[in-house]
Amino acid sequence: MKNIILTSFLIFAITVKSQEIKSLTLKDAITYALENKADAKKAKLKVENSEYQIQEVRSKALPQISANGGLTYNPILQTTFLDGGSFGGEPGTTVKLNFGQKWNSTAGVSLTQTLFDQSVFTGLKAARSTREFYQINDQLTEEQVIERVANNYYQVYVQRQKLNVLDSNYVNTTKVKNIIKGQFDNGLAKKIDLDRILVKISNINTQRQQVLNAVQLQENALKFYIGMPIETKISIPQTEFQVTPQAFSEVPNTANRTEYLLLKKQEQLLMFQKKADEAAYYPTLSLSAGYNYIGQGPKMPWGAKPADGVYWSDYSSIGLNLKVPIFTGFSTRAKVRQADVNLRSLKEDIKDTKLSLDLAYENANIQINNSIVIINNQKENAQLAQDVLNNTRNNYMQGLASLTDLLDAENSLTEAQNNYTSAILDYKLAEIQLIKSKGELKTLLNN
Asked: Is the pTM of this model over 0.90?
């Protein structure tokens, strides 16, 4: 019985813990994403992998040493017929000779060292640039993760604010419904008024369900973008959404943007690729050396001795190998020209990227200024709509305003509050783009 009670308690504790609501600030969301999202992890793995790529290229400049061995059995030996006069016999006769032994076994070691290969030297330089390329790509991936998380984070906020507006509207409309029902029960209100307010409440419930569904979908999207289990319950503090003016005094330097730096590094890699293709025009020089041990005889050489007719001997060689390309069917020229076209194409991408980054900054600048104006206007409009609703409600209670006037005032307040919330979202999204244009997305981790 004790074990059953203990097990039940543990299950209950785990269930309660799994249902705990996790408070999630923007900094928390970004930090969680950088630690858990697959994109961020894969970018770091590419940086790690670049070290192994460098080692692979470097290995081509180091000695290549290999061991070899073999065992051969010759059931039928090669036969050669020679002039008998060559062996002191009678001229004009033919001598039959068999070459080789039934058994042969070899063991040895060989070494090859590149002395000059232009493609290897170019590859070493390119390998270091490859490491830098993946480091910049890792930084860009982190910025993309931060931007995506921030955008979705604020989208969740907007949907939740709309839900709060509907909840508040529902409470106020329910109070009015109770008043009208009391009046109707006392014969002081028409049934059509009660029906209209009931329809209003039903519409609010329908809208609330739609927004609640949108909230859940947006929260699931946010949890996906940060790599958090979908079943986790989250809450977003209201303090995350303070509107603070941004500084526009300095135009950001596009050359410092990660997107631009990545393309410039890619341009450098394409230049190395072109040089690597041109290296095929250069001669190559290498050193080779080998030492081998061979055993031959009518029996298997392993473990056999000269008394068995098996003899072992060694031999070695050292050589220089020079290869001078003369004609390759124009394949090298074609590769060089392809590399040149790729390089020129990337230069156009760099120009276009710079233009798009400048455009993004200007648009963010305009959007954020407009959003501040709209936020101030909508904030005043929402307050005015609240005052109108309060006055209309009082007048309705005193019989000085119709139910239509009251419902119109409630709709106006709901619209004004939603417009204010949407204006904050537009501001926040523009703020992210502005911070991005300055190359300062990681400053969101400091908030």
From this structure: no
